[in-house]
Amino acid sequence: MTNMFDLSGKVALVTGGSRGLGRAISLGLAAHGADVIVASRKLDACEQVAGEIRAMGRRALAHACHMGHWDEINALAEVACSTFGKVDILVNNAGMSPAAPSSLDTSEEIFDKVVALNFKGPYRLSALIGTRMAAGVGGSIINISSVGSLLPHPSFGPYAGAKAALNAITVAQAQEYGPKVRVNAILPGAFRTDIAKAWPKEKEQNLKAAIPRYGEPEEIVTSVLYLASDHSSYTTGTLIRVDGGRRE
Predict the structure, then answer these.
(1) Cβ 205 vs Cβ 243: under 8 Å
(2) Is-contact 5 225, C-beta < 8 A?
(3) Which residues are the active-site residues?
(4) 10 Å Cβ neighbour count for 176?
(5) d(Cα 38, Cα 54) in Å, to the nearest integer?
(6) What is the pLDDT of residues 140-160, one digit of tens each?
(7) How confident is the model at residue 166 (pLDDT cuts 50, 70, 90)?
(8) What is the pTM of this model?
(9) Counting Cβ atoms within 10 Å, is residue 172 exposed (0-12), middle (13-18) or buried (19+)?
(10) How far is Cα of residue 110 from the mean position of the Cα atoms in its chain?
């Protein structure tokens, strides 16, 4: 096998695909043959990544979408399927994790935004795309959750709760859309993305993990490729940790 993860002829939709882990995932899927729809809130950022994908010889579509708004999600699903005729791979990557000062001091506005982006949006998009996949040739849905859903902390309680809910619907929708559609989740730990620039320098030094460092964005791509490809044909409803063996 010259390319175990050959995705030629496949169409992938990546939310939050313009930066950080999403950008690495979008480019990684394209490098292995997939055409890619890059979605995030800022169209210009999506266009930049789409341009890089087209330079690889792949087709790409940039689309602005707020994953917390169902009407925009409906439009995203429609334009993706009408432009490419199908979606074979859906990566629900868009998310946000603002600090929670305390449970009492967390505002309703912040709570609703966190739940909408990390749970409501993926739930809706997976329903729209998963239904189409199940009615067609099948496909793979990959939810980007967080190890924080298993190791929650008061400083990101709403985020941990929303990602735990994402874990739950991963299992539920694997049952709903199987056997033709596989639904799995990847639970990243701390990665060296744009947001890491705002973290205290000592955070990485104090990580409690078997591999005590930040992950690089490219280090999540292999797990995505496995779940996107036919080599994971018997893997569904599974949570895969990519966190360096975090203990807390």
Answers:
(1) no
(2) yes
(3) 159
(4) 15
(5) 12
(6) 999 999 999 999 999 999 999
(7) very high
(8) 0.95
(9) middle
(10) 21
